[in-house]
Write a structure and sequence with these properties.
Blueprint (H helix, E strand, L loop, with lengths): L2 H13 L1 E3 H19 L6 E4 L2 E3 L1 H12 L3 E5 L5 E5 L10 H14 L5 H9 L7 E3 L4
Helix pairs in contact: 1-3, 1-4, 2-4, 2-5
C-alpha cells in the first residue's frame, strides 16, 4: 500500500469517524507540514470557487471504502461521513510522517466544527503547496 493511502488510513484510525470536509482540511495541513519539514506533499491542491480541494483525497477515501477499510454514509446534513472499519489493518508509516500527522491531529483536536477548521486552514493557505487563482 502506498504512502498516501497509509496516511489516510492512519488519520481514519486516529479519528474513528469523520466528515469528508474534515479529512480534506486535515490532509491539507498535513501536506503543508510535510512540505516544509520533508520537501514533499501527498496531494495536488487547488483553491477553487467552492474552496480548497484535492480531488485525489476523495479518490483515495473512496478506494479505501472499496477495499473495506472505511465505511461511507450520508450524514443528517447531507455530507459524507467515513468510519474506520478494520481495527487490525496492518500498515506502518515512516516515523517522520507519523509525527507530522500526530502533530496536526493534536493541534486541531479542539476545533470541533468544520467551518471553524476551514477558517483555521484558510488562514494558512500557502502558494508553495496550493494553486491559488492562477498563481502557479
Amino acid at each position: 500500500m502506498d504512502l498516501v493511502r497509509r496516511v489516510v488510513l492512519y488519520v481514519a484510525e486516529r479519528l474513528g469517524e469523520f466528515d469528508v470536509k474534515r479529512l480534506m482540511y486535515l490532509m491539507y495541513l498535513i501536506d503543508r507540514e510535510l512540505f516544509y519539514l520533508c520537501g514533499f506533499t501527498l496531494f495536488y491542491w487547488k483553491f477553487v470557487y467552492s474552496g480548497l480541494r484535492s480531488f485525489d483525497v476523495y479518490e483515495v477515501a473512496d478506494e479505501l471504502v472499496d477495499l473495506g477499510y472505511l465505511d461511507k454514509s450520508l450524514s443528517n446534513e447531507g455530507g459524507m461521513i467515513y468510519r474506520f472499519m478494520r481495527e487490525r489493518v496492518k500498515f506502518e508509516l515512516p516515523k517522520h510522517v507519523r509525527d507530522v500527522v500526530d502533530k496536526v491531529i493534536e493541534k486541531t483536536k479542539g476545533i470541533d466544527g468544520v467551518a471553524m477548521l476551514e477558517e483555521h486552514v484558510l488562514k494558512r493557505l500557502d502558494p508553495n503547496v496550493v494553486e491559488i487563482a492562477g498563481l502557479k
